[in-house]
Amino acid sequence: MEKHVRQVVSEMLTAGYEANRQLAFYFDPAAEHTERDWEGRADYPLLHLFGKPGSLCGLSLKQTSATALDRGSIRFVPTAEFDNGLKITPLGGQYRVDDPGVASVEETGVVVPIQSGAASGAYSFNGMEAPFQIDL
What we know:
globular; three-stranded antiparallel beta sheet
């Protein structure tokens, strides 16, 4: 499902929508397509469209499996949390790997292993960082 959302997001950004302000979405890799899981996220679109703008107060990464079409087997999904309760999957931001000889992280969050070992680094967005450490 997220692949289709990312395709629409890409088209909207190309059309001129401003990332994270005019256009935002939230992807929770653990959520299912059920009423219970939707209930936990139903207020995010309302906060984004009609709520008072919030300040970024948290940034985190969830580690999940990459899809079979991706080159790596690990993928990071960032979550930005705002003080008004809004959560989004940030559009933009940058991944940094401390030792590029071990792995790289693509813009999509897919980890591309180069050799076996421990890889550490961080995802940064709007002045905040979310660190990561993984074994490859």
